[in-house]
TrEMBL record:
Protein name per UniProt: FAD-dependent oxidoreductase
Upper taxonomic lineage: Bacteria, Bacillati, Actinomycetota, Actinomycetes, Mycobacteriales
InterPro entries: FAD/NAD-bd_sf
Alphabetical list of Pfam families matching this protein: NAD_binding_8 (PF13450)
SUPFAM superfamilies with a match to the protein in the record: FAD/NAD(P)-binding domain
Source organism of this protein record: Tsukamurella pseudospumae
Length: 471
């Protein structure tokens, strides 16, 4: 029987292990932490029964993942839930850009920008079954549905700032800028529209949903699926040398490229090693979880009904903060993402105490404390928030790296998503999962299609490994 070891039990490691196990491979999954999940873990620390997500929180890409949808994860307890509104970016005048569930609903609230919104997303969403699998695959492949993909992809290479000029209202520009800012890159740079377009398309097609009981429920369901297929999971096992795994026929690493280079060592071809050691990191995330009495008192009423609130002011302000963090400067008013998952999943709250998830975009490796800046940004759009806080849990960029070794300096995207790394991954090649060593592959979010809980990096890497075996 073919044997495989998967190192790292984030969503991609779990997906790789399941893909191999489904084909009869004897799989062992090794995880350095005490629990599996990587970026999809949850915790209960601020109050009994109060559930916070450690990292990934809203999952439009996971809900639409072809790999996850090939599994019956509902039998393992996974259930997706949605709030009334998906995303809001409030402005200082009390208005907001509002992302509603469907293209038509969102466009209807955009006034003169409604027609442009429909032009950008209507065709893609109606044909998501054709476009979605291509979006969640390596980009340098011949697509099965080139016309539909071209309609989605035509604006993707554009800087987000250029596309923003096409919107006539500050609310639509702000909403677009906040979603595009998930790239963690200056919005005037090429291809910063790509991730924003992908997130918005997936959101309209599937919703910005959360996992009932916390994102850890995704990891639990995937683990249960792997065990049902005969796989083995070992936690608290940190792999530091190739000697620990080289007896397996296949080895897949759900690790950032520098860690892979450190483990594989001189066995790695020199050109691959140079690329992995020179892998470019992105800016960081500074995270604060709050226990809040009665929820957040947003000035904008739609923000009170939304699972996600982006705090960056208008488009110009969001763009300025992303330029600052890319240049290593901490802005006075950082871009802040706020998660109110409890509005979709009331089971996460403890009575009238609600879990509020937040993180600020900060320079990579930022050593300061952004807690007050985050509170001030929320207070800016929700006066009285500070008085409602009954508990906090802070995770700095350093602590983020300890929580997940792939998140170097707080880089939760596992590398800069500049054009080259977004398209190719850690090195320029048509086979982004190959290490150049027979039987060894990288399957982390450093590879295409990149971050999120979709598991597609792991699935594609494992499929490549099986193909190399002639299966």
């Amino acid at each position: 029987m073919t044997t495989a070891t998967v190192v790292g039990a984030g969503p991609n490691g779990l997906a790789a292990a399941i893909t191999l196990a489904r084909e009869g491979v004897d799989v062992t999954l090794l995880e350095a932490a005490d629990t599996v999940g990587g970026g999809i873990r949850s915790f209960e620390a601020l109050a009994p029964g109060l559930i916070h997500d450690h990292c990934a929180a809203m999952h439009p890409m996971a809900v639409g993942s072809p790999f996850l949808n090939s599994l019956d994860l509902a039998r393992h307890g996974l259930r997706w839930l949605a709030a009334e509104i998906d995303c809001v970016q409030p402005l200082d005048d009390g208005t907001a850009g509002v992302l509603r569930r469907t293209v038509d609903e969102t466009a209807a609230g955009m006034g003169p920008d409604g027609a442009l919104w429909k032009a950008l997303f209507d065709s893609t969403v109606r044909n998501i079954d054709k476009v979605g699998p291509a979006i969640l695959s390596p980009l340098l492949r011949v697509p099965k549905h080139p016309i539909h993909l071209a309609r989605f992809g035509a604006p993707a290479p554009l800087p987000a700032s250029l596309l923003a000029r096409a919107f006539r209202t500050p609310q639509a520009r702000a909403l677009w800028g906040g979603v595009a800012a998930h790239t963690f890159r200056p919005l005037h740079q090429p291809m910063t529209s790509a991730i924003g377009l992908g997130l918005l398309s997936a959101g309209h097609a599937y919703g910005w949903k959360v996992a009932e009981g916390g994102s850890g429920a995704i990891a639990a369901a995937l683990t249960a699926e792997l065990l049902a297929l005969g796989g083995t999971v070992e936690t608290g096992v940190r792999v530091t040398s190739l000697r620990e795994v080289e007896s397996s026929d296949l080895v897949l690493f759900d690790l950032d490229p520098a860690q892979v280079a450190g483990i594989v060592g001189d066995v790695l071809p020199a050109r691959v090693r140079r690329a992995f050691e020179g892998f470019r990191r992105g800016p960081g995330a500074f995270k604060v979880d709050f226990a809040v009495q009665g929820g957040v008192p947003w000035t904008n009423p739609d923000a009170r009904r939304s699972s996600t609130v982006h705090l960056g002011g208008d488009f110009a302000e969001t763009a300025a903060t992303e330029r600052d963090i890319a240049a290593g400067r901490m802005p006075d008013r950082p871009f802040v993402l706020v998660g109110q998952q409890y509005l979709a999943d009331p089971s996460r709250s403890a009575g009238d105490i609600h879990p509020v998830w937040s993180y600020a975009h900060v320079p990579g490796g930022y050593t300061g404390d952004a807690t007050e800046a985050i509170i001030a940004q929320i207070e800016r759009f929700a006066p009285g928030f500070r008085e409602r806080i009954v508990g906090t849990a802070v995770c700095s960029t350093t602590e983020m790296s300890r929580y997940n070794a792939n998140f170097v300096g707080g880089d939760i995207n596992t590398g800069s998503k500049d054009p080259l790394q977004l398209v190719f991954g850690p090195r320029i090649t048509l086979q982004p999962y190959d290490l150049g060593v027979p039987g060894m592959y990288i399957c982390s979010a450093a590879t295409p299609p990149g971050p999120a809980a979709h598991g597609m990096c792991g699935h594609h890497a494992a499929t490549r490994a099986l193909r190399q075996l002639g299966r």
